[in-house]
Amino acid sequence: MATASQSLEPKHVDFLLAQKMFFVASAPLAANGHVNVSPKGLDSLRVLSPTRVAYLDLVGSGIETVAHVRENGRIVLMACAFEGPPNILRIYGTGEVLLPEQAGWNDAAALFPEYRSARSIVTINIARVTNSCGFGVPLYEFGSERPQLGAWADRKTPEELERYKADKNRVSVDGLPGLPPSSDA
Predict the structure, then answer these.
(1) Which domain covers residue 61, as residue numbers?
(2) Does any domain span residue 173?
(3) What pTM was computed for the model?
(4) Number of compact structural domains in the chain
């Protein structure tokens, strides 16, 4: 039976932090804009309080979630049980994007392991939490984290990482601003 609340309960936190993967969904305001769903992994999710969560956003080939959150704030985080009892947890809220050059970055980044590919921290102010059965979600066994992102970033100089972000993360597919230009790019 599905349940809804306005904040995370201890059972939600336990479930959320036990998952090896979660998804974030966002959309631009434009009706013809692209809805985006991004899988997230590694040790990148933190529960800050019953009404706030944050995840460390790592470099990728796109910047859709950051661009959407910067435009309109809307975001949904979803975690599914791929092992153990079936469950789906959704967190609806408004997001904020914190960039490395902004005040507060060092304190927020200290909550996470250090990843050279970190490009932002997305904080979600929770408006609604839903919990549903997940009976249709298949069972999978976790093997391991993929090493490719870390290895890719380790092969890049700081200047090369900044150039990559400038090339791939400046604007979304709909032309919304993503990451601002860096003085290092």
Answers:
(1) 3-168
(2) no
(3) 0.95
(4) 1
